[in-house]
Amino acid sequence: MTKSTHEVIVVKLGEIKRHPNADTLEMTNIWNYQVIFKEGQYKTGDLVAYIPPDSIVDTTRPEFEWLGEHRRIKVRRFRQLWSMGLITPAPAGSKEGDNVADQLGIIHFDPDEYTREGKPKERANHSGPLVSGRASAQPRILPKGISMPRYDLDSWYRFGDILKEGESVLVTEKIHGANARFVYVPDRRGLLQKAWDWTVKLLTDFSSGPPKQRYGLFTGSRNTWKDPLQDHAWSRALKAQPSIGQFCVANPNVVLYGEVYGDGVQELKYGLDHGEVRFVAFDAFDCNAMNWVPQRLLRSIAHGVGLQMAPLLYEGPYEKEKMPEFAEGKSTLPGANHVREGCVVESLDNPRNSHGFRHKLKIVGNGYLEKA
Q: How far is the C-alpha of 330 from the C-alpha of 192, rounded, in Å?
């Protein structure tokens, strides 16, 4: 898939089962999400609104008053089984397939904006300087004709059925940090020139080519390009890992996507402290071919320059029942001593469907969500 979705969809309840460890609880599946609720609360065929984990609900509404101050919907264990999200009766007049998030006043949880319980943070408590680096002053920072997609992945629990049993897949660890992208655009037509001469300072250690070829290394988050002279997570990662610049200079117009992580980025620090930040790559987009670089090829190129890739957890035939297992357990990133955030599952046989959507999905671990 190509865009991360966070919706509240009206669904018709399918089979309802009794909780095997509790006489007063029942359970059902919404797509691949398991949801647990009180016995007799719902019946097969009911229209309900499914509220996924990491949603913020308005507890002043009658539907959610019972939640008290716990506005954030999370995963929970009920008698050893996970309940992923919440269901509530569909609003009057809605039909199956409707997105009723706005109607119910439900928004997506953003850790920069809300506390763990879902309360708005004071402005002073928002993201620190490491993950809020100043955007570039240039209104248009890429040459005309150079474009790339905004990076997002959909949930395996929602769209996992696009993957077929037995097809070849690659599963990597999902790292908890801040989305990052790097790309080197050669100054062939004078489109960058002196306005970008400060990038020479960053590329000095990365390229031995003539000076004019050292222009055009762009550093950015998911939504904005960052000023590389400012001290923030992206510039620290770039300076700490010359392999990022080496990869970009060797592969011009190829956008390297990944995650910056470490001390001061998110709550999972992966063994880093004293403001240390690192980068792990997980994807690349060729702006010339307007296509994603095949994962095996990307990992081979990255290995050649010593670029750290997202840890590989599994490569082999797809088995639906086993995929959530890869999202659980301790992080495999060297130096980490905590739970992993989750995993990413990507098809190697069918990288995209007939509509161009990528068969690449994320699974956020229940162990992480329970503690987050």
A: 44
Mean pLDDT per 10-residue section of the chain, whose length is 372 residues: 67 96 95 95 96 92 90 91 95 95 90 66 48 47 70 91 95 96 73 40 43 61 80 90 91 94 93 94 93 94 96 97 96 95 94 72 93 76
Sign of the Cα torsion 4, 92, 63, 33 reads negative
Does domain 9-124 sit in CATH 3.30.300?
Answer: no
Are 288 and 325 spatial neighbours (Cβ–Cβ below 8 Å)? no
- Domain covering 149-371, topology: D-amino Acid Aminotransferase; Chain A, domain 1 (3.30.470)
Q: Chain-centre distance of CA 268, in angstroms?
A: 14
Contact 153, 1 (CB under 8 A): yes
Map tokens 């997002």 to a residue.
152
Phi, psi angle pair for 359, to nearest 5°: -95, 70
Instruction: Tell me how far apart the alpha carbons of residues 125 and 61 are, in angstroms, rounded to a whole number.
Output: 27
Tell me the three state secondary structure of residue 199: helix
Domain segments of the chain: what residues? 9-124, 149-371
pLDDT of residue 116: 64
Q: What is the pLDDT of residue 330?
A: 97
Q: Quick one: which H or E segment has residue 361? A: strand 360-364
C-alpha dihedral sign at 311, 367, 53, 108:
negative
